TrEMBL record:
Transmembrane segments: none
Species name: Sphingomonas aracearum
Gene from which the chain derives: ligD
Source domain of life: Bacteria
Protein name from the UniProt record: DNA ligase (ATP)
Length: 301
C-alpha cells in the first residue's frame, strides 16, 4: 500500500543565493513547468537529493530551450557554471586528466538549473574516494511491450537473489520506464572488482532464466526480455540520482520507494516535479526510513 504519509516536520529548504534568469521559460511545455519551478524544486529538494547526488562526479542533461528541444549530456565545463559548481580532476584511461563537475549544496544544484540542466546523473563513487564505489546499481531496462508488472517482478527477483548473497537493496523508480535496484556499499573494493561482481551477477540471472533476463546491451537480444544493465557499475559510468527530474513528458522524477510500496505502483513515472510536497512528506514517512543506507561489502561471486 502506498501510504499517504502523516505530516512530518518538513526539512527546511535551504537559502539559495544563485540568481535564476528567465524564470518563466517553459521547460516542460506539456506540464506547464517553468525554469523557475524547476529551480524551486531542486532548492526545496536539496536536503533529500544531496545525500545521494552530493560530492559525486556528475553528468548533466541540459536542455537550455526546454524538453523536446535539443538536449545534451555534459560532464565537463570550463568554469561557466560559476563557483557553486566544483571540479575534481579525474585520471582518464589514456593517462590524461579531466575535470569533472560536482556539487555539495542547493546553490550548486540551482546553478546547474540556471544553465539549463534538467537531469543529474552521478558516478558510483564520491570525489573523496573516486576509486571505491559506495553503491552499485542494476538498471532494469524492459523491452518495449513488457508490462511494468514484469519489471517489478524482475526487481523483486534481484532483491531476493541479492539478499541470498547477504546484500540489502533499495528500489528506485527511474522516472522513465524502468526500476533501478540499488546496493549501498561501504567503500572498500575498487572499480574492477565491483564491475566484475555486477557483470557476473547479471550473467548468472541470464543463465538461469534466459527467457526473462538478458545481460547483453544489444536491442535485438532484448526481445520480450529485461536487460539487466550492469554497465552502470564501471568507472566513469553514471545513473540518474534519486529525486532528480527527468527530461521526459510529464516532468517525472526518479523516486525512491520501499519494496512493499513498489508492489502497488503502476509506472516508473509515478511522481514528478509537481509532486514536490508529497515527495518531501514521503521521504519522512516510515516506508522510506533508512532508504538507501546499509553498511555492507560485496561477497565473492
Ligand atoms: P529508464 O528507466 O527509462 O531506462 P534510465 O535513467 O534508467 O531510465 P537508461 O537509458 O537505462 O535510462 O540509462 C541508464 C543510465 O545510463 C542513465 O541514467 C544515465 O546515467 C546513463 N546514460 C544514458 N544515456 C547516456 C549518454 N548518452 N551518455 C552518458 N550516460 C548515459
Ligand atoms: Mn534504465
Ligand atoms: Mn540502461
Amino acid at each position: 500500500v502506498v501510504e499517504t504519509p502523516a505530516p512530518v516536520a518538513e526539512v527546511a529548504a535551504p537559502e539559495v543565493h544563485v540568481k535564476v534568469s528567465s524564470r518563466d521559460r517553459l521547460i516542460f511545455p506539456d506540464s506547464d513547468v517553468t525554469k523557475g519551478d524547476l529551480a524551486d524544486y531542486y532548492a526545496a529538494m536539496a536536503p533529500l537529493l544531496l545525500p545521494w547526488a552530493g560530492r559525486r562526479p556528475i553528468s548533466l542533461v541540459r536542455c537550455p530551450q526546454g524538453r523536446g528541444k535539443k538536449c545534451f549530456f555534459q560532464k565537463h565545463d570550463a568554469g561557466s557554471f560559476g563557483e557553486e559548481v566544483h571540479q575534481v580532476p579525474v585520471r582518464e584511461k589514456d593517462g590524461s586528466t579531466e575535470d569533472y563537475l560536482w556539487v555539495d549544496d542547493a546553490d550548486g544544484l540551482v546553478a546547474c538549473v540556471q544553465m539549463g540542466t534538467i537531469e543529474f546523473h552521478g558516478w558510483g563513487s564520491r570525489v573523496d574516494d573516486l576509486e571505491k564505489p559506495d553503491r552499485l546499481v542494476f538498471d532494469l531496462d524492459p523491452d518495449e511491450g513488457l508490462d511494468f508488472a514484469d519489471t517489478k517482478k524482475a526487481a523483486e527477483d534481484l532483491k531476493n537473489h541479492l539478499a541470498e548473497l547477504g546484500l540489502v537493496t533499495f528500489p528506485m523508480l527511474s522516472g522513465g520506464k524502468g526500476v533501478h535496484v540499488i546496493v549501498p556499499l561501504t567503500p572498500a573494493a575498487e572499480w574492477p572488482a565491483v564491475r566484475d561482481f555486477a557483470e557476473r551477477f547479471a550473467r548468472a540471472l541470464e543463465g538461469a532464466e534466459p527467457e526473462r533476463f538478458v545481460a547483453n546491451m544489444s536491442k535485438a537480444k532484448r526481445k520480450g526480455r529485461i536487460f539487466v544493465d550492469y554497465l552502470r557499475n564501471q568507472r566513469g559510468a553514471t545513473a540518474i540520482m534519486p529525486y532528480a527530474a527527468r527530461a521526459r513528458a510529464g516532468a517525472p522524477v526518479a523516486a525512491p520507494v520501499s519494496w512493499t510500496e513498489l508492489r502497488d505502483i503502476d509506472r516508473a513515472s509515478r511522481w514528478g516535479v509537481r509532486d514536490r510536497d508529497e515527495l518531501i512528506a514521503r521521504a519522512g514517512s516510515r516506508a522510506l526510513a533508512g532508504w538507501g543506507v546499509a553498511e555492507q561489502v560485496l561477497p565473492d561471486l
